[in-house]
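Thread: "does anyone have the structure for this chain?"

Original post by V.I.:
We have the sequence but no experimental structure in hand. Need at least a predicted one for the grant figures.
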Amino acid sequence: TELSEWELELDKPVPDSTIGLAHSLGGSSATVGFLALSEVARLAVRRFQPIAASRQLELRSHLAKGAVPVAAPDRWLGRLVDVLLDNACRYAPASTTVELVVEATDARSHLIVTDHGPGIPAEDRERLRERFERGAKGDGNGTGLGLAIAEAVARGTAGQMQIDAGDDGGAVVSVSWPRDQVSWSEASFTD
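Reply from O.Q.:
Generated one for you, C-alpha cells below.
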C-alpha cells in the first residue's frame, strides 16, 4: 500500500540523542514554552477524526478543563500525540473505540491513549521502544518507529512513558510530566 504524506513524516528516522530529535522536529531553535496539553490534544483529535472514521473507529476524547501545562516545543508535543493516536487507530479493530484522555493531578500532567486492539504483550513493551522494532501482532503496515518516537519525545521533555494492557486486552500508552518542570531544558538536551 502507498503511504500517506502523514505516514511518511512519522517514518522519518529518530535520532539517537534528544539534540538530534530537536533538529528533526524543527531545529534546535524550536520554541520551548509551557503548552496547554488539552489544546494540543484537541487539535490532534480533530486531525485524526477522518482517519478514525475511515477505519470505522470511534475516536473519543476526555480533556481536562484548564491548561494542563507541559514544557515542550510545540512540534514535539504535537508529534507525540499524533504518533500515539496513529498507533491506536492503526491497531484497533473496526467498530471499536480509541480514547484520548488529558488529566492533571497536583504533581503531574497526563496524556493517555487507549485502544481495543490486540494489545502489547508485557515481554515486548521495552523492546518496542527501540527503533524499527515491531510487535508480533502487527498488521505488517508499520515501520517500528511509532513508540520509539513517543519514547524519545517523552524523555526529551522530562516525561515518562508507560505501556500497559487495558481491561479488555487493548493497549494503554500513557505519558506523564512533572507539573514543576524547572529543570526541563537540562533534562531535554543532555545525552
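V.I.: this helps a lot. The longest helix spans residues 37-54.
O.Q.: and The chain is about 35% helix and 25% strand.
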